[in-house]
């Protein structure tokens, strides 16, 4: 007897849970992601209670959620998803929403008007533990993201960085991966990861994205050097 393709397999590739309060948006996201064989949509929900319940049951790799759900109580919902890899899809491409989303700890941000191929690209980057911003909004992040106070150049935390740690901070700001940094400094990726961890700890930064933004605001990175896409945290390529 022939066995149907995929029988006995609960999911394939990257499991994605969709959430939005508009069915037409959910349909569009399903259609875009269906083109990528490495991604499986495991469900779609319309409200916050159902979203939280399905995350517990389905354990998706990534949650792709409409900004309208996250804006409830000033992105409190996003903070409830701490530890979950979240990509925001939004019709409102304002600076205020962009800053609020990143400040709330989401891993990716994508306007709904973005080219279709950007959505699988964002899902893959975030599923690998990274962060994703499309090229056309990256510069806005560096210019308008205000959650990180600009420290005094003589602040003890900055002065505590070694010369190599300062070089690593600048490289992060340029969007370089651990592999690229290791190649430049002729050290192992493990050594680079240790440097990155110490930089984050000393400067009390949440992740690689905040480190990149701080490097920009400190003037360690020029506009020409700013990455088109904020690279994944700890990515090896």
From TrEMBL:
Domain of life from the UniProt record: Bacteria
Domain Response regulatory: 15-127
Chain ranges of the HTH luxR-type domain: 154-219
An example Gene Ontology molecular-function term: DNA binding
Keywords (A to Z) from UniProt: DNA-binding, Phosphoprotein, Transcription, Transcription regulation
One of the GO biological process terms: regulation of DNA-templated transcription
Designated name of the protein: CmnR
Provenance organism: Saccharothrix mutabilis subsp. capreolus
Lineage: Bacteria, Bacillati, Actinomycetota, Actinomycetes, Pseudonocardiales
